[in-house]
Design brief:
The protein is α/β, with parallel strands linked by helices. Strands 2-1-3 form a 3-stranded parallel β-sheet, sandwiched between helices.
Length: 107
């Protein structure tokens, strides 16, 4: 029986990279016939990156994130997650983290 699965990547103002594992898992789960949704609050509210430090080290070229991302949605990610859960009604919620967003995931 197909299940509704919600992946949560609790990335609030930390990283601008989506872990490859989430993409692979979602693809495999969909291929198995399940419905999958991803909640990624990366661009909700104000975010900060380590891009400036990487630019100073010379490992990255300078970028204007506003040009790339646009104006971000100014909402509380926790409230948005509650709305997504209430609307989507998942059978299973999976949380995928990297060490930088461990505290956010615990909340």
């Amino acid at each position: 029986m197909p299940q509704k699965i919600l992946f949560v990547y609790p990335n609030i103002g930390v990283e601008l990279r989506i872990p490859l594992a989430i993409s692979i898992l979602i693809s495999c789960i969909r291929k198995a016939g399940h419905e999958v949704k991803l909640f990624d609050p990366t661009f909700m509210g104000e975010f900060h990156t380590d891009n400036e430090a990487m630019e100073e080290m010379g490992t990255h070229k300078s970028t204007n994130l506003i040009d790339l991302v646009g104006i971000t949605k100014q909402v509380d990610p926790k409230d948005e997650l509650c709305l997504v859960i209430a609307d989507y009604k998942p059978d299973l919620i999976c949380v995928s983290i990297v060490e930088r967003n461990f505290s956010t995931a615990k909340e």
